[in-house]
Amino acid sequence: MNERIDESVVIPVITIDGPSGSGKGTVSRLIASQLGWHFLDSGALYRLVALAALNRQFALSEEGEISLLANSLDVKFKINSSFGEPQILLDGALVGDEIRSEQCGNAASKVAALPAVREALLQRQRDFSCSPGLVADGRDMGSVVFPHAKLKIFLDASAEERAQRRYKQLKEKGMSANLAALLEEIQVRDARDRNRCVAPLVPADGAILIDSTTQGIDEVVTGILEAWSKLV
Ligand code: DC
Questions:
Q1: Is residue 36 situated within a structural domain?
Q2: Residue 3 in domain
Q3: Which of 59, 138, 213, 228 counts the highest number of beta carbons within 10 A?
Q4: Residue 164 pLDDT more than 90?
């Protein structure tokens, strides 16, 4: 394991873990923006590794090749001044919506189950922890990557609600979508993420559990900011 210091011991970190579609990406970005902190979208790193592996036509079970790829991944996040998704450059080329596709999400979930790939991305994720603070979004942010984070959240929602949200999102982007297929994909991906032997998706020790099935984004953000304000 990498022995470098976990910066979250000194830099304040809020971790927001949960399954895909729970709203954690939007919630994390809003909280980072309101606190004026940095933001880590760890899922994007796994998606980029998957995309790079697919581009090279690697089998997604090729742990050795894919972990080398993860180690040397040439990726840059260009933060927009306004709230929104940062631009991502992979090997110097702008990555568009292809990393947000279901195909890339599923491939990311497969490469993320490879222990050597997770190890290869560990320090890269910890390096996001910079002053004045970090909001980290993922599956194992509170349990593995930033175990000393001051505030840990586990944001969940029912699979049906998450499939509905994804369906709406795809339709708004003018993309085709099938609700039943989305629900099935979500259930398969959940099972893989929750049951893998390394860093499975589970609430970290001490995490606050929030169910966003019937809560709006604003309500969730307010709840997390209140929890944070009680700690400082
Ligand atoms: O959050 P997301 O949907 O962009 O993540 C894509 C996949 O990456 C997800 O199915 C599992 C994996 N992942 C992970 O294993 N650990 C993380 N910290 C983030 C994502």
A1: yes
A2: no
A3: 138
A4: yes
